[in-house]
Amino acid sequence: MPTSSSGIRIPCVFPGTPPLILLFLFCLAQFLDSFNNSALFSAIPALEVSMGMTESQSTWIISGFQLTFASFLLISGRISDVYNPKTAFVGGVSGLAVISLCAGFVNNTIPLIVLRALIGIASAMTIPSALTLLVNVFPDPLEQARAIGLFGGCGCAASVLGLMIGAMFVEWTSYHFVFWFVTIVATPAALACVFIIPPEISNTKANLEPAAAKWKTRSASHHSRAPIVALILFIFAATSGSTDGWASVMVLVPLIVSILMVIGFFYLETIIPVDKAAIPPRTWFYHNFSVLFGVALFPFLWWSTVFSIFTTLWQNVFEWPAISSAAHIPKWIILTGLSLCMVATALLALGGGKPEEYWPYIFPAFFVGSAGAMLTYTHTNIAIFQAAPSSMAGTVGAIFNGALQSGSAIGLAGVSSIETSVEARHGGSHEYSGRAAAFWFLFAIISIEIISVSIFYDRSTDHKPQPTHGDPGTPARRSTDSDEKLNDVNVTIIEKADLADLPV
Known about the structure:
There is one protein chain. The chain is an all-alpha fold. It folds into 2 domains: 19-198 and 278-458, Up-down Bundle (Growth Hormone, Chain: A); 222-277, no CATH class. The protein is 75% helix and 0% strand. The protein contains 17 helices and no strands. The chain is globular, with a radius of gyration of 23 Å. The two termini are 20 Å apart. The model is unreliable at 1-14, 205-220 and 472-504 (pLDDT under 50).
């Protein structure tokens, strides 16, 4: 039986449950979450026609899922770390099946946006819990890196396959089956998880004392709602700015309030005891954690921007069928991925406004950009888990996936606003100038990401052992009285667990 760096025995093989089967179930949840995001891009033109949506309303169909998904990941991560992650995982997959079934029967804009937000909450329950279970099943660092890489790769695959599958449903049946497909896959998966996932992997010796942990989670959940409200206000302001004017009260007030709420949230995190913090402040000081968080804001933003712009352009302007639209679609590795995305984005900005520009510009850009985004996503995913203690797997998974969705939601709001503003002055939606401006905005973001990784990413820690919770030798450690109390709790639990293993 393998042991962790602290000598605690952690099971990785369970009678009757091969680890690869468990990994398949975890990857399936990741696939469904990414599918929920990408499949809707092919369906948006059909939804706009069927429900009479405006462009800002169609943005909320995507952002509604991303906002609740990103916002509830922190709470879900805490639940997975201190409660039973199996229960959270099964509950999330089951909720995904039920809510998606209901969404398939909806034909009105507002109820659909609400259900998309609820789907985001259900999806948020699956990712941190799946990562917590995955880390317990594969405690060996090499196997764990491979498993996390495969887990992230399923998200990349779903981002592409989701666009294709969604387009096939729209073309050959209706957009309703985009939702029902999730129900068809998630229902048997949830039933299988109940019987296949063994309860042993839900019990981690690194957890906090149950009573203190539950109180901590409840306390953290109250002020962790501030980022949720701030993101909603920011996206509302960004999507309204191009129509109501950036100087209007309806834009400036929510924009300023959202910025102040984010600043207030992070300031509050630094002054309250660590056992009440939604994100313990020391998390940001682990080697390379902050810069990896910044990189995580980008991959989904690239995919979302490209998909949202071209699915609408090809179906509404070029009048291509949905299926045709979809069919055209460690430090140096991360920098390589970002560089490929930069090249692809420049190609998309320079050409693509005419059907004959597809092969010289769009096709190579999709190929190069998708490869770059996949490299960036996968290796950032692996690196950020190695940057923090394994006992924080659920929280780290929540932060990482929250960054993916938040970056996409906020970025899409900015892209939509820039595109609409430029089109209003340069020929309308049938001209490519607004879309080109959106891609140059994306190009600027990639440039900032490359500069940040080049300067702030510390390669000297790439091959060091994964830090442990409360290790005073870790440079990221910021000790407080509350930290010491939590460490005492951990030591007591570990000592009791070790005594229980002694032979009688």
